[in-house]
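Hey, can you fold this?
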Amino acid sequence: MKVGIPKELKNNENRVAVTPAGALELTKLQHEVYIQRGAGAGSGFPDEAYEKAGAILLPDTESVYNIAEMIVKVKEPIAEEYNLIRKDQLLFTYFHFASSEDLTRAMLKSGSVCLAYETVEASDRSLPLLIPMSEVAGRMSIQEGAKYLERPAGGKGILLGGVAGVKPANVLVLGGGVVGTQAAKMAAGLGANVSIMDINLNRLRYLEDIMPANVDTVMSSEYNIRELIGNIDLVIGGVLIPGGKAPSLITRDMLRLMKPGTVMVDVAIDQGGCFETSRPTTHQDPVFMVDDIVHYCVTNMPGAVPFTSTLALTNATLPYVLMLANLGWKEACRRNEALGKGLNIINGTIVYKEVAEAWKLDYVEMSAFLA
């Protein structure tokens, strides 16, 4: 198969979808790997490393799309890529369709096959291709939150861990999944007082067992959120509905309950955000203020630490990339149920229910295309 790896065009996105090691695994199996010049530079992988692995370097994004049967990316295509995507071409990347109607309609129009990392789902309901980036984003959310709590950045001027004789910051983590767990661990490790919320009592019991003493577990409800946020310095939004829009847990009217300079980091922004006042931002311009509350809503947080992120992501994605290249998407998805759940759009038809519901569009069962 002809596998194409374009350079990521999203703002400050420095990750790359396939490392030189991954390219070598593909070429060893007689697949043709085409990579855009400079695609790996941001992650520390020079063009020469790909050439040694047997990949063919191409000068621009258009050249990669023109020749490839399968495009492997990190982030969703942006507008300037839409017209490069052709009918029957397989795209394997993060899409997060529920956060962008324009992207959804563009991929429907292209006639391509869109296989989304974020909805590949194992039998235990875990999301193996989302987990590594959720780990990175969860940990980064505390780094970024601590930075924007500084007064020059618009925050309250609070040191997350405090010092002797001065209380540490209070952190509220919404969601006890991978993002929330990693965020709580990081915040607790820095000495903050942490409250982590979830609607799953069994998950809260688990978190109660594994977390240090400065982490409290709280059942998530609107009432409990309103009771807590008046005394919170940093809020981390880490809720997830696989493939669907995130629920708005912090509404606009709740902002008046918070003190000026409170920081909110919306890790769920890829899926529409879990704060009503959230809107997507970039690493170039990461924050904005609403009612004196700092909002950090960068849609590709792991892109700021591309060396770590690329290795973590490709460790998880490469086995699936090899499977798709070896068998083609239909046979690979027939044989691997987890991979099949990654199918979101096939040749102009939505096959993932939550995506269709997000934009009130028609939906067809994926099985109709795999028969």
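Oh, and this one too while you're at it.
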Amino acid sequence: MAAQYTIRASPKQASKPVDLRNGSTVTEFVLVGFEQSSPSARALLFALFLALYSLAMAMNGLIIFITWTDPRLNSPMYFFLGHLSFLDVCFITTTIPQMLVHLIVKNHIVSFVSCMTQMYLVFCVGVAECILLAFMAYDRYVAICHPLTYAQVMSRQVCVSLVSTAWSFGLINGIMLEYMSFRNPFCRDNHIENFFCEAPIVIALSCGDPQFSLRVIFADAIVVLLSPMALIVISYARILASILGKAFSSSRGKTFSTCASHLTVVIFLYTSAMFSYMNPRSTHGPDKDKPFSLLYTIITPMCNPIIYSFRNKEMKGAMVRALGRSSLSQTESV
């Protein structure tokens, strides 16, 4: 991916014509982020985002631990939930630590390679999470609408294959999106009006006509976002029809609670991602991009474990048991 580009890196050079034949190498970008905020506002944001990041890491880490170690949670739903939490940990770690550093230091420069790496990881993990959420909706459909064949349909081997498919599609799709983002040389500016290297903003900085790359990413977003969403909508439409078609039962409330948890996560992630990657760039701006970027990079990963935990009695019981074992082991060590 190493290539020769030309870029206007500072305001003093803005009035000078750009000569691509000089072949100046792009070595860095500037993440504007919250640079315009006052020092007190940045300090407040640092404390807030550090608290949210710590909470997200702790909650997702606890879910990963209990879903992979508690034998009472040995079911496909919790198998998928553990992998969802692992994806959330990967997702927030690619963006938030860097943002926290930039909130307390004046140097907001990132290397060209670092920007590429961060963008690839965001693509890879984000795509994998979208697909995994669709598989989780399908799992709920089979469990509720076909309970007698659930164990056969959602066997351990099938679950592993579905998770592997989500990861594989994310890894491969990330390569294609990475190429489309950096296929053109950069010569307009190197200031990214966000707190991480987000593809549409980076593409807009490239030379020539960025419309082809943006159209490809838009088409990819249709496949990655709308196709899983269609599966989710179909699964939950059939679940709703099945629930309403049955006589009242004590399990109806539990079913609605589980489905509502999953749908809440889906709405958070898909709404923010669709705004970022499926809206025309003319409707975007720093004041609009950053809130939605924050929503799907930190708020959603933080809300996922909270939503699933507080709306699920089995998860709350497993957390209590895990924390109880931890307290007991500490007492015995003392």
